[in-house]
Design a protein that fits this description.
Blueprint: E1 2-7, H1 25-42, E2 46-49, H2 59-73, E3 78-86, E4 100-104, H3 111-125, E5 142-143, H4 147-150, E6 156-163, H5 167-174, H6 176-197
Helix pairs in contact: 1-6, 3-6, 5-6
Length: 199
């Protein structure tokens, strides 16, 4: 199973930071993605980051890279996890929304199962933290037609790792505990999914 890791936005993306400017999403999620890739490779899994640039690679180019790999390896042999941090506002003032969530494309898809394993790992790794869920369709993930979910051919999940405009969430994100838990949750969720499908 080929594991593709995407990291949101770039150093040139407007906003996407904490109101005090100390937290920058593009930098943080790249560091998290690098750690996830490194740990999965160390455990013998075939993992690859699709965005190594620091600038914001257009969504169309990201999906092109992913779909090219799907074409070579077969869609059933590839999964994608896109890593982001959430925001309730435009980055100019602190907000009250908090928590972790995962998104899939609309409808019943193979990505729902991957999201289930990521949610289970989130519950295990974020004790006492808010885990945001939407059970309208019977499972916990939220459904949106985000480009990275709707325009990629393989099962794809986008994680929103707490809120960059909530002071308590930012403190957690920047802590060693928070970073370690976020990396571990992704690794556990991905590996448990792969074991479940036998690839």
């Amino acid at each position: 199973m080929k594991i593709l890791i995407d990291n949101g936005h770039g150093e040139n993306t407007p906003g996407k930071r904490s109101p005090d400017g100390l937290f920058r999403e593009y930098k943080y999620v790249r560091e998290i993605a690098e750690e996830i890739e490194r740990e999965l490779l160390a455990r013998g899994y075939d993992a690859e980051r699709i965005v190594r640039e620091t600038v914001d690679v257009p969504l169309s180019e990201r999906s092109r890279r992913i779909n090219e790999i799907c074409g070579r390896l077969g869609t059933a042999n590839v999964i994608l996890v896109s890593i982001h941090c959430n925001a309730a506002g435009n980055g100019e003032e602190w907000k009250t929304a908090r928590g972790w969530a995962a998104y899939t494309s609309k409808g019943n898809t193979k990505a729902d199962k991957l999201a289930d394993f990521l949610y289970e790992a989130a519950e295990n790794n974020f004790p006492g933290k808010s885990i945001r869920k939407d059970f309208q369709d019977g499972d916990p993930d939220w459904e949106e037609n985000f480009h990275m979910l709707a325009k990629t051919k393989c099962p794809a999940v986008l994680t929103e790792n707490f809120f960059m405009d909530n002071q308590k969430d930012v403190s957690y994100l920047l802590s060693l505990e928070g970073r370690t838990s976020i990396v571990r949750a992704h690794i556990e969720g991905i590996i448990n999914y792969i074991k479940s499908v036998g690839k």
